[in-house]
Design a protein that fits this description.
Strand order of the largest sheet: 1-2-3-4-5-6-7-8
Number of helices: 18
Structural class: alpha/beta
Radius of gyration: 34 Å
Number of domains: 3
Largest sheet: 8 strands, parallel, barrel
Number of strands: 14
Bound molecules: 3-methyl-2-oxobutanoic acid, zinc ion
Shape: elongated
Length: 562
């Protein structure tokens, strides 16, 4: 090993034939939000009571059934907030609030006092159990630490009884679990369980925290598997994990720990918490969602959640934050845009789901943005690296244009040259402007001032039209015959010596909107006589013939100007 002199490889726990790597997660864990405690205590400016209240309501609406609301014995604000929740009957039915305490009598008494009148609650007690903490911070032996844990638990049992509180569960955290000798952690946890007494699984929680993430994520899972295979009271205990994110692996560590058997997860939205924070429940839960497992948490209004958390924490959610960031469903590269466009089409969806049984699977998108309230039309932004596929996708999705395939390269070129000059991403509205300026509103040497059909010949098969035009600044009155308004106009124009040489190369039309006053859109291309180059023009009008004539003049002007 090419060893660095400063650090040691974290000592693995002795699991033999570990099972967790082969386990497939079947259900989501019990979620406990610690935003209002672990998250809040690590904010440069802690939340005001009003912000905490709003946050609590949001957490309940997302679907959290367990919410740690504070450390009432350590802060008057937290005490008052807990009282407000209980006294004003704010806690929804089925939601248990949790309060944190240290294992000291006066703090326990104050904590129990804060819960007076609660319908359901959790008292959460923590004791640091690592040798590092015992020796360096507290100057205590393992025996002292165990005694403190057991005595603290007994004090809590007594205080709950004395206060006459009902439906109170107990949570014990051997703080720095992942830095604690695992057999000693099991010994303490069993002693604590014995002090609490016999109970149902949901009334006794052992929370095994990675208080500081010093190990690789797979070692956390190993520790959970080892713990659960030896700890005696598993059928009366909920095993909970609480991962901090010092090495950026809290989500991975938690997912692996769930495979190893953990029942419950503590964490925060977007990973607020001490230092690099706690595990991010948004990412974790949506990862589980993306594996086809119902999570019980509702993130369908991600915009509102981001705004509320940003408002409460004073910290922005990063643009690339998984699931929640502004840019995470945005493709800049042309090939990505093209693949997304194809993958989102109804045909591809059908293929993926019915033929290949792939569930929802789209190139470059790992979940459907709609699941979290994001929209398809915001998927693609345009910059100088975008291809025509993405550009046309926006024109179709946002503005309803359906330009013919042969026109796509010309649209791509027009947008590309604008983007190259701007050197920044282009918004969808700008794209619409570029499209209008490049293909619809073309000021050039030709304009159509008036058009009307004088007579229909041969039962409508041929028309004679009178057109007023301006060519190279001179107004002219022309007459033409053809099998429709476009061909009559083209014939009339071709009589003029100072017109460029051209032929009509392609014509297509569509309607926009479904009502009686739907707008007609025409796409016409002309082939320039001098070099055979093709130029598209677009016309929009309530009348399809007028739309077509406008498209002809737009195409002719482009041919004359380029
Ligand atoms: O990180 C931690 O260990 C904690 C405990 C209080 C559970 O937050
Ligand atoms: Zn923590």
């Amino acid at each position: 090993m090419n060893k660095h002199p400063k650090y040691e490889y974290p000592k693995p726990v002795p699991v033999k034939n570990r099972k967790w790597p082969d386990i497939r997660l079947k259900k989501a864990p019990i979620w406990c939000s610690v935003d209002l405690r672990d998250g809040n205590q690590a904010l440069p400016i802690p939340m005001t009571p009003e912000k905490k209240y709003k946050y609590f309501k949001m957490l309940a609406s997302i679907g959290f059934k367990e919410i740690e609301v504070g450390f009432p014995s350590a802060s008057q604000d937290d005490f008052d907030f807990t009282r407000k929740l209980i006294q004003e009957n704010i806690i929804p039915k089925g939601v248990r609030i949790s309060v944190l305490t240290q294992a000291r009598k006066h703090l326990i008494d104050r904590t129990v006092e804060s819960l007076a009148g609660v319908k359901e609650g959790i008292i959460h007690c923590y004791v640091a159990t690592s040798d590092l903490h015992g020796n360096i911070v507290f100057d205590k032996t393992r025996e002292d630490v165990k005694k403190m844990s057991v005595e603290g638990t007994k004090m809590i049992v007594k205080a709950i009884e004395k206060a006459g509180l009902k439906n109170i569960a107990y949570e014990f955290s051997p703080e720095e679990f992942t830095d604690t000798d695992i057999d000693f952690a099991i010994e303490i946890c069993e002693a604590v369980k014995e002090a609490w007494g016999k109970c149902e699984k949901h009334n006794f929680i052992l929370n095994l925290p990675a208080t500081v993430e010093r190990r690789p994520p797979y070692q956390y899972a190993d520790m959970i598997e080892y713990f659960m295979s030896r700890y005696k009271y598993l059928d009366e205990t909920t095993v909970s994990v609480h991962a901090h994110n010092d090495q950026g692996c809290a989500v991975a560590a938690t997912e692996m720990s769930l495979l190893a058997g953990a029942d419950r997860v503590e964490g925060t939205l977007f990973g607020h918490g001490e230092r690099t924070g706690n595990v991010d429940i948004v990412t974790l839960a949506l990862n589980i969602h993306s594996r086809g497992i119902k999570t019980g948490l509702d993130f369908s209004d991600m915009g509102m959640i981001v705004k509320t958390v940003e408002g409460a924490s004073g910290m922005p959610v990063h643009q690339r934050h998984p699931y929640a960031g502004e840019l995470v469903f945005t493709a800049f590269s042309g090939s990505h845009q093209d693949a997304i466009r194809k993958g989102l089409s109804a045909g591809s969806r059908k293929k993926a789901e019915e033929i290949f049984h792939l569930g929802w699977k789209v190139p470059y998108l790992h979940i459907d943005p709609a699941d979290i309230g994001r929209k398809y039309e915001r998927l693609i932004r345009i910059n100088s690296q975008s291809g025509k596929g993405g550009v046309v996708f926006i024109l179709e999705q946002d503005f309803g244009y359906r330009p013919p395939k042969e026109m796509h390269p010309e649209i791509g070129d027009a947008v590309q040259s604008y983007a190259d000059k701007k050197k920044k991403e282009i918004t969808s509205d700008e794209l619409n402007e570029i499209f209008k300026k490049s293909f619809i509103d073309i000021k050039g040497p030709y304009s159509l001032d008036d058009f009307h059909i004088v007579s229909e010949l041969n039962k409508g098969e041929t028309v004679r039209a009178k057109i007023s035009v301006t060519i190279n600044g001179a107004k002219r009155e022309l007459t033409g015959e053809g099998n429709g308004p476009v061909s009559a106009t083209v014939k009339a124009l071709k009589t003029q010596k100072d017109m460029i040489e051209f032929i009509i190369n392609d014509f297509s039309e569509q309607s926009m909107g479904q009502t009686a006053d739907a707008t007609a859109v025409a796409y016409v291309s002309v082939k320039r006589g001098s070099d055979g180059k093709i130029f598209y023009g677009v016309g929009i009008h309530s009348n399809i013939e007028q739309a077509a004539l406008r498209a002809v003049f737009a195409a002719l002007n482009r041919a004359a100007l380029n």
